[in-house]
Amino acid sequence: MRKNLTVVSCLLLATGVFAQTEKKPSSIGFSVAGTDFIAANDIKNTSISDAKIGGFSKLNAGFAAHYWKGLTKNIDLSVTYTGSFLNRLPQTFPDQVADYFQSLGASFNIKMFHDKAVINPFLTAGIEGYNYASKFGAQSPFGVGLQISPFQGNTFLLAQAQYKLAYSDNKVNHLFYSFGVLAPLTEPKAKVLPPPPPPPPADTDMDGVIDADDKCPTVVGLAKYQGCPIPDTDKDGINDEQDKCPTVAGLAKYDGCPIPDTDKDGVNDEEDKCPTVAGFPRYQGCPIPDTDGDGVNDENDRCPTEAGPADNNGCPRLEQFNFNAKNVQFATGKAILTKGAVTELDKLVKILNEHPTLKLSIDGYTDNTGKPATNLTLSQKRADAVKTYLVKKGISTDILTAAGHGIDNPIADNKTAAGRALNRRVEFSVAQ
């Protein structure tokens, strides 16, 4: 008996242990009850399958008073006092003259759901002390229950069915049925939450500058630029803080400046093959070349691969090859080469063979004796005679040009015999 009372005391003390995790508020309840000693006696003496369970004829009317407290969301502790008025007892009941049976104990109730569920089955088990007549004992209730929540708040209907197993020599095992209501001692007060703090000022781009002060609210920027990114004035992809030429588009490798043009010729150094000497774009930044090194650039040099003086357009003079055009003479009034002319033209053939890139212009002239038309024809024939001789010597006709100019371009005075002799001439000019 003392051991059983110790168990009951421990169950009662458990209420305080679990107080910090209280879920169901402290509640009290009352139930109508029925106690069946006859069916329980049959179960003890036979088996559950052979026992005749049920029927109001076997029930002793009674009641139950409850105190419940939630330990967790799914576990409640209950302390229950029961009273039964005995008028239907088995023959084996220890005291047939007893007229009242009472018990007090505690149980754990393990619920399937939390208290917000409308229908919530649970299992129950515990320890109780009982008394009838002058006898005392201990018993354990084992059973099932149903918690029904048809109301708002924490008021429930309770239905339970238990088998109570006695531990003492007084074999008073019995079935216990109850149905009642359970209501909280006090409804828990709803927590009054403090008002939420005002939302922080909006900063859409999360750059630390609130939208109200941000001139670029959707683009991350800096406070010193009013929330905008570092500017790039020249739009070259290099911000002004890193750009040494912030107003002129440039490249990162030149710190935001354009590609330099050291010689200031309009061709940047990356494209300039002569970056320190001024030149022209068509020569990739280099000066106009002078291939033959005669001081006349190739664009002005009619013979860019043959050195010649500037006053002859960069072409060589035939005289420098020991050729004397004055020795190319014709019989008077005819287009027949003299022997001296042939000798001199042979020198010219050698010159042209040694310098195959040269081109030769042959220009025939006359003095003013005779009719101009006749003189023009004669000058052309003399130029053609020279060309014909050169071609016969193997010179390509493609590099020879023959033209007669008559009395044009005199080089001496036609009033004297000496002057007229000088004007009856063939001139040679070299090109390339």
From TrEMBL:
Signal peptide: 1-19
Keywords: Cell outer membrane, Membrane, Signal
InterPro entries (UniProt xref): Bact_OuterMem_StrucFunc, OMP_bac, OmpA-like, OmpA-like_sf, Thrombospondin_3-like_rpt, TSP_type-3_rpt
Keyword Membrane attached: yes
Gene3D superfamilies membership: OmpA-like domain (3.30.1330.60), TSP type-3 repeat (4.10.1080.10)
Cellular localisation: Cell outer membrane
PROSITE patterns xref list: OMPA_2 (PS51123)
Any one GO CC term of the record: cell outer membrane
Ranges for domain OmpA-like: 317-432
Protein name in UniProt: OmpA family protein
Annotated source species: Panacibacter microcysteis
Lineage of source species: Bacteria, Pseudomonadati, Bacteroidota, Chitinophagia, Chitinophagales
